[in-house]
Amino acid sequence: MPHGPRRRGRRPGRTPAGAAADNGSVAKGRQQRRGRETVAETVDGGLAELVPDRDRPRAWTLLVDGAPQSHVDLDDPARLDFAYQRRLGHVIDLAAPPGRPLHAVHLGGGALTLARYVAATRPRSTQQVVEIDAPLVQLVRRVLPLDPGARIRVRGGDARAGLARLPDGWADLVVADVFSGARTPAHLTSTEFLTEVRRVLKPGGTYAANLADGPPLGHLRGQIATAAEVFPELALAADPVVLRARRFGNAVLVASDTPLPVADLTRRVATDPHPGRVEHGRALADFAGGAAPVTDANAAPSPAPPPELFR
Predict the structure, then answer these.
(1) Could you check whether the bond before residue 68 is cis, i.e. omega within 30 degrees of 0?
(2) pLDDT for 221-266, tens place per residue?
(3) Residues 62/70, Cβ–Cβ less than 8 Å
(4) Which residue, among 181, 177, 148, 159, has the nearest Cα to 47 in the 3D structure?
(5) β-strands 233-238, 277-280: how paired?
(6) pLDDT number for residue 222
(7) Which of 85, 110, 145, 225 is disulfide-compatible with 70, CB 3.0–4.6 A?
(8) Do residues 141 and 116 lie in contact, with contact meaning Cβ atoms separated by under 8 Å?
(9) SS3 185
(10) Which of helix, strand or coil describes residue 156?
(11) Contact 87, 78 (CB under 8 A)
């Protein structure tokens, strides 16, 4: 995804797979920083690199085949560096009263950034992470170890298969942030998949998905229509430039069977370091533009980002 605006004092970084040019803060390069060096290993998804953040002594960016995936600060796991992760963080903050523990499911692990965030902001939460790339999990857990007191269980395997093993009504929150390379697999885009998500959620639970698309936003519109087939309440948070179909980027889709805290989410997203916009209700339905829901029979992966995105 294309580069975003710079933050003061930082060079522009490459954007994460599934995250638009809205982070503008990814540590760049492979050289030694503050005595630390990049850790690189081959994993199932390609070449994984943990690149030290030059500004923070225990912060790292995970890249896979050159595409940034996650940023983690071990000294401050409640700090979310990528804009799409901040938006997911807002959803997590609003999923229940402050500090209340959650039962959370993370489909896609990366550097376990969001699981660490939940553990830091909602102690005593019980979390399950499903990540298909076992060598990546091993690398992340070795170099960026989890707090031993965090109740985070990491399961290997396909996200949808892992979801199917969970009992009905177990989760307060399901977060989907799954990319094979820089594309969401087709079987995680359908009404059948979202029906399984709703089965696992408690009444009033929240689903949030990181989606990536570019002009003319056919995939994103289809995902809104698909979610509307399963959940009565939806909201979408994204960079306004992405919503206007002017560049490839990411959007966070939020869904529930009960009304969402749209006003609070809108305020938080608008006051981020890189402000975004929230659509819901009639405006979101108009944005979807009559797109057809996706089913397993016609599902396709999300579109590949343009070749120049990570240059």
Answers:
(1) no
(2) 999 999 999 999 999 999 999 999 999 999 999 999 999 999 999 9
(3) yes
(4) 181
(5) antiparallel
(6) 98
(7) 110
(8) no
(9) coil
(10) strand
(11) no
Residue 141 has pLDDT above 60, yes or no: yes
- The first and second tokens of residue 75, run together, are 């000294």
Is the pLDDT score of 24 beyond 50?
Answer: no
Percent of the chain with pLDDT over 70: 88
pLDDT tens-place string over residues 32-69: 444 589 999 999 999 999 999 999 999 999 999 988 89
The answer to whether 45 and 240 have CB atoms below 8 angstroms apart is no
Alpha-helical (H) ranges within the chain are 83-94, 113-121, 134-143, 159-164, 191-200, 218-230, 240-243, 262-270, 281-288
Name the phi and psi angles at 297, rounded to 5: -70, -30
Q: Which two tokens stand for residue 296?
A: 């397993």
Question: Is residue 33 within 8 Å of 54, Cβ to Cβ?
Answer: yes
| Tokens linked to 146 | 């989890």
Structure tokens, 289: 């533009």
Q: Match 């030694």 to its residue by tokens.
A: 32
**Distance, CA of 284 to CA of 98 (rounded, Å):** 28
Count CB-CB contacts under 10 A for residue 264. 13
What is the spatial distance between Cα 33 and Cα 12, in angstroms, rounded to a whole number? 16
Q: How far apart are CA 109 and CA 115, in angstroms?
A: 8
Confidence band for 308, pLDDT divided at 50, 70 and 90: confident
**Chain position carrying tokens 């939806």:** 234
Three-class SS state of 42: strand
pLDDT at 194: 98
C-alpha–C-alpha distance, residues 260 and 91, integer Å:
10
